[in-house]
Amino acid sequence: MSFILMMRKSMLLITFAMVCALPGFAQLPQVPSEAQEDDNTVADVFVGGSVQGSGHTGGWIASGAVHVNEEFSLVAEAGAQYAAVIDVFGGEDRLSLFTVAGGPRVQFTMNKKFIPFVQATVGEMRVSLNVSGIPADNGFLFSPGGGADFMISRRVGWRIGQVDYRLFWLDGVCASAWRYSTGITFRF
């Protein structure tokens, strides 16, 4: 069994486990009305922009996290990076990198305004170059990282930053790049 095939099966298993865990959160006990001022969030959604590498690529990121407890969450994210590359004839081509990944997140809720976290996601990436005759290709992605949210209100926050070290495996070749993201976080 090839490494990529094994990683795809692992990602499918992780995604399946996350989806199976969601109905359990529907059974969470109701919080008494006097305690509702405590910020017991069950999930959060992040939408933002990102820069990868040395700033030559820009893109977007969207993620969702289901909070298992106050410190531990399961996160799933999707994103894309775009870059203009110069081909051998001096022309400009567009390189696109799409990713889907999921994994665990640990957040450190020292106070309700500033929430740092670390996470590690695994998933799949798709690389395409808009040159005729070159097909798009899929590969494996491993992305450990961390960041911090600054809560503007009980339900809306600003992700001050999220930094991920992204490792890509494509056709037996491993490459890596840093990604920085920032944007808005919504808590439910």
Structural features:
about 15% helix, Porin, mainly beta, about 190 residues
Description of the molecule:
- With 188 residues, the chain is mostly beta strands.
- It has a single domain, classed as Porin (Beta Barrel), CATH 2.40.160.
- 13% of the residues lie in helices and 60% in strands.
- The protein has one helix spanning 3-26, and strands at 43-52, 57-67, 72-86, 92-107, 114-129, 137-151, 156-170, 173-187.
- Strands 1-2-3-4-5-6-7-8 form an 8-stranded antiparallel β-barrel.
- It is elongated.
- Mean pLDDT is 81; it is low at 24-37.
Q: Helical residue percent?
A: 10-25%
What is Rg?
Answer: 19 Å
Question: Which runs of at least 5 residues are low in confidence (pLDDT < 50)?
Answer: 24-37
Spatial order of the strands forming the largest sheet: 1-2-3-4-5-6-7-8
Q: Helix and strand succession?
A: HEEEEEEEE
Write down the overall mean pLDDT: 81
Give the termini distance in whole angstroms: 41 Å
CATH topological fold name:
Porin
Characterize the overall form.
elongated
Strand % is: over 45%
Number of strands: 8
* Major β-sheet annotation: 8 strands, antiparallel, barrel
Structural class: mainly beta
CATH C-level: Mainly Beta
Q: From the 3D coordinates, which CATH architecture would you assign?
A: Beta Barrel
